[in-house]
Amino acid sequence: MARIIYVEDDELVGAVVQQVLSAAGHIVGVINHGTLAFDTIAFKKPDLVILDQSLPGMQGVDILKALRRLPALYLTPILMLSAKGSEQAIDEAMGAGANDYLPKPFEPEELVRRVADVLRNNSFRREVTS
């Protein structure tokens, strides 16, 4: 079980992701505004952050870059989940420090698998750097 913050401005997509990941045993909070999300993530320090790219206030990749500059959060795993599935968008997010990138639309099973992979890989990385 992981504490996850999902940043998504589409209410329906947010509800679907929350339901899918909750059924997989995770606790998921959904935030619909980029600036609010950054402040909440910095305060709550979740186990995983899932970011959409296009958000009001602050874009997903900008949140990603800002989180990677915070010492308390630079190892927090971040999965981008976005309709922007171009090679350029993926390269930009991965270059900025995303742990994985899943384009929309997605299969629920694929999302659950990717979340598990990112959490497992991050757990190993934290053990190695400790």
TrEMBL record:
Cytoplasm is among the record's keywords: no
Highest taxon listed in the record's lineage: Bacteria
Residue intervals passing through the bilayer: none
Modified residues (4-aspartylphosphate): D52
InterPro entries on file: Bact_response_regulator, CheY-like_superfamily, Sig_transdc_resp-reg_receiver
Gene3D superfamilies: 3.40.50.2300
Record keywords: Phosphoprotein
PROSITE patterns, A to Z: RESPONSE_REGULATORY (PS50110)
One Pfam family recorded for the sequence: Response_reg
Positions of the Response regulatory domain: 3-119
BP term (GO), one: phosphorelay signal transduction system
Protein name: Two-component system response regulator MtrA
The organism of origin for this protein: Sphingomonas kyeonggiensis
